[in-house]
Design goal:
Largest sheet: 22 strands, mixed
Radius of gyration: 23 Å
Structural class: mainly beta
Number of strands: 33
């Protein structure tokens, strides 16, 4: 279904609906404009609800947005798996957004994906939270929660950096979500959804802002080749996992590097002696210069 341009503010939209134990699978609703009460990718009173998608690009939803929703009944316990809600626009400030419905049925791998700035009343029942960054030209907040914080402990969180350079992301204040809490890791991906090697650790003991590059620690978890001035994150220390190799092509290194890792300076690099605190092997390639400014 692809819907837009009308006022259905008293009505619900279903990609698929069953009132018995029949499954609802692989349905998609794209909502572009207009007004509706609620939007469900898949809804069942008793059957499995799997692989359904809701895409919101505009319009107003005042009730519920749900990728999949099992409501619970006498028909049995349907599974709620791999449903997805993708939001890039629209007015959802009065809407509650769900990955799945009742927690009394089995559920797994349900995903919320935020692709631009949006305000949502509340979010519930997601195992995965993904952010896809638009082009960043200034400070930006993606997900604003109007009425209730969301605990991210135990969730899988990913950020696709899109076309943005790390230096730009380090310059601006990028608030991915304004009311998250918990201990969780964020894995960063490039525009093609390949892992960049960066994982950021957050420890939000109370509801607060989750800001890109301002978590408790930034880690490099795989071999990485980059420029010294293009390291992701605003932290003054970068932690590199044991046995991994960080290669700098050139540039000025402003961060302290820690870990039982290997550093390779493949180009001319300027740094400060106090910034190198590794216990692995440090190598300056032939003909290249590592310059210490002091310290």
């Amino acid at each position: 279904w692809s819907i837009g341009g009308s006022d259905y503010s008293l009505y619900n939209i279903y990609g698929g609906y069953t009132s018995d134990s029949s499954p609802v699978e692989s349905k998609t609703v794209i909502f572009k404009s207009g007004n509706v009460n609620s939007v469900y990718g898949g809804y069942s009173e008793g059957g499995d609800v799997t692989g359904n998608i809701v895409v919101i690009t505009g319009g107003t939803v005042r009730g519920i947005v749900a990728g999949g929703y099992w409501n619970g009944s006498d028909f049995g316990s349907g599974e709620q798996r791999e449903n997805k809600v993708i939001i890039s626009g629209g007015n959802l400030s009065a809407a509650d957004v769900y990955g799945y419905g009742s927690s009394s049925s089995p559920h797994s791998n349900n995903t919320l994906q935020i692709e631009n700035s949006v305000t949502i009343s509340k979010i519930y029942n997601f195992e995965n939270i993904n952010f896809v960054l638009p082009t960043i030209t200034g400070d930006k907040t993606l997900l604003s929660l109007a009425n209730l914080a969301f605990s991210v402990t135990g969730k899988k969180v990913g950020v696709n950096l899109g076309e943005n350079a790390n230096s730009d992301l380090n310059t601006y204040e990028i608030t991915l979500a304004d009311k998250f809490s918990g201990n969780f890791d964020v894995t960063y991906y490039d525009k093609n959804d390949n892992a960049t090697g960066y994982v950021e650790k957050f420890n939000l003991t109370s509801a607060g802002a989750m800001k890109l590059g301002e978590g408790a620690e930034m880690h490099v978890v795989s071999d990485l080749t980059t420029y010294a001035g293009e390291l992701l994150g605003k932290q003054d220390t970068l932690y590199v996992d044991s046995g991994k190799t960080l290669t700098f092509n050139s540039g000025t290194l402003e961060k302290k590097i820690k870990g039982a890792c290997n550093l390779i300076f493949a180009g001319d690099v300027t740094t400060n002696a106090s910034y190198i605190a590794t216990t692995g092997t440090n190598t300056v390639n032939s003909g290249k210069t590592l310059t210490f400014n002091g310290g």
